[in-house]
Design a protein that fits this description.
It is rod-shaped and about 95 Å long. It has 2 domains: 146 residues, Sandwich (Immunoglobulin-like); 67 residues, no CATH class. The two termini are 36 Å apart. With 257 residues, the chain is mainly beta. It has a 5-stranded mixed sheet, with no helix packed on it. Strands 1, 3, 4 and 7 form a 4-stranded antiparallel sheet that branches.
């Protein structure tokens, strides 16, 4: 497992974060897109933070990802805040972030951040993945050598994705990857499954071809899901407006993704 190390203000992050940042920058420069506008973190009233007899109070955080493409291509800054509740100046030397008990990021501060009593150490960390993470910050008395640490929980949420999945459950759909791009999306159950159809426009999903009537018109039934994959015989949208041919032609399959 690779662990990433950085000095203060030179943040080295996991490769997928770096790739996303470069992709967004290049897209903006070429005029094909624009970077994700991250949600502004609420300002922290340091005086209002209750120390609760702790040397350092590390605030838990809830972070909302902001997405570029519906619920995809998302990122946000994790705004970390730790108040110096002691009577001494403290040096904040290192930050670690863990995902599922595995360390995924290290930030070392050189020179160390020196925080007066009653003030707060603050750092923003770019993030793209959903889940519960643990942040651990290391500190020591200014000029000292004995280091202590304090941890807090960070909940990173993608509310757009949560909303989409909730809507998928409501339509009794199946959440998965679909299409040639393998994008996450929902495949809802249709309300008109097995209904007879003579035109693709008559179905919530796809009109699946069953055969021809005695006049050469295409007949079919509606699919039980909105998205149908594979090569199938279908009744196209607008088919009912096309004059039938008698004898009818051999039906050719249409490949759907």
């Amino acid at each position: 497992m690779r662990t990433h190390l950085a000095l203060r203000h030179v943040v080295v992050v996991p490769l997928f974060l770096l790739a996303l940042s470069l992709s967004l920058t290049a897209s903006s420069a070429l005029g094909r897109g624009k970077p994700v506008e991250k949600a502004a973190a609420p300002k922290v009233d340091v005086k209002a933070i209750k120390c609760e007899e702790r040397e350092v109070k590390f605030l838990p955080r809830d972070v909302k990802l902001v997405c570029k493409d519906e619920y995809r291509d998302c990122e946000a800054d994790i705004p970390l805040v730790a108040k110096n509740c002691s009577k001494d100046f403290l040096e904040f030397t290192k930050l670690e972030i863990f995902e599922q008990n595995r360390r995924s990021l290290i930030l070392e501060f050189s020179p160390a951040s020196i925080i007066p009593p009653g003030s707060a150490w603050q750092e923003k960390v770019p993030w793209t993945t959903v889940g519960d993470v643990e942040a651990v910050v290391y500190f020591r008395p200014a000029g000292g050598s004995s280091t202590d640490k304090v941890q807090t929980d960070v909940k990173v949420r993608n509310f757009a994705l949560d909303t989409a999945k909730a809507a998928c459950e409501k339509c009794s759909g199946t959440w998965g990857t679909y299409g040639i791009n393998n994008k996450e999306r929902c495949n809802c159950k249709t309300k008109d499954a097995d209904k007879k159809c003579t035109d693709g426009n008559q179905c919530q999903g796809i009109c699946l071809f069953d055969g021809y009537d005695n006049q050469g018109r295409e007949l079919g039934h509606c699919s039980d899901v909105e998205r149908v994959s594979g090569c199938r015989n279908i009744v196209a949208k607008g088919q009912s407006k096309i004059p039938p041919r008698n004898p009818p032609p051999r039906k050719l399959s249409t490949c759907l993704d």
